[in-house]
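agent> fetching stored inputs for the 7PJ docking request
agent> found them:
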Amino acid sequence: MADSHSVLHCRGRVLGLERPVVMGVLNVTPDSFSDGGRFVQLDDAVERGVQMAEEGAAIIDVGGESTRPGAQPVALEEELRRVVPVIARLRSRTQAILSVDTSRPEVMHAAAAAGAAMINDVRALREPGALEAAVSSGCAICLMHMLGEPRTMQDSPGYRDVVAEVRRFLRERAETCITAGVPGERIVLDPGFGFGKTLQHNLELLRRLRELSVDGLAILAGLSRKSMVGALTGRPPDERLHGSVALAVVAALNGARILRVHDVAATVDALKVVAAVQNS
Ligand code: 7PJ
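agent> prediction call returned; pasting tokens
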């Protein structure tokens, strides 16, 4: 394999990426489409996070802002109230790397102080102050591509060459981080499946995923329960397990090192099978 970064440095911890690993999605939002608000309560969110770690998630991604198409923005204070206590309590309950899914520098600072070791930003540190906050935190950083903003991103997205354009964007954001002093071992790149992409765009990005690994940086893929699975299988979000696992397997075979998923146990098993084949 041409990929060169097989570890991720997360605030003093080193996560091995020789085999693909799972990032479990922990939404602490009342309007997240696939969990229907079941985890709004702090206790429930913490228990679900602990469970995902027990199921084999190497990373737990805690998010308080819904970024689904059409979602409304959340106030800063509300986002802090949702994510910081969950991260603080998970810190004492699990060894998993805790990630915060946010675009706001204030949330990055507070989450890192509470024990987060990774920042997952669907806006790739383009909000004012976000780059500086992420760099100084020492956290690993996931830079994701999105065309436009969540509210409008699915309104007829267009590209001349989707792979080239996403790659150019990810390279520019990675170079910005590296220039600011972040080593490549702290950077993860993500094409942002479904974020301003049609089904055809998503399929082409998945098929040509390896081409996005700028300078051998690790790639993260988030396909779990997305509308792409619905389009391919005709299933509603709560029946997209099998299609989602299939996409995670394809992504891993095409070079993804981190799979962001809702269904941790099923994906961990599937990736064990993939790793056995890859290392045989
Ligand atoms: C992604 C994400 C993704 C990264 C969401 C959902 C929508 N972060 N946050 N990549 N998707 N890095 O989970 O369906 O694909 S929110």
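agent> quick read of the result: The beta strands are 7-10, 13-16, 21-27, 59-63, 97-101, 118-121, 140-144, 187-190, 218-222, 258-261.
agent> awaiting further instructions
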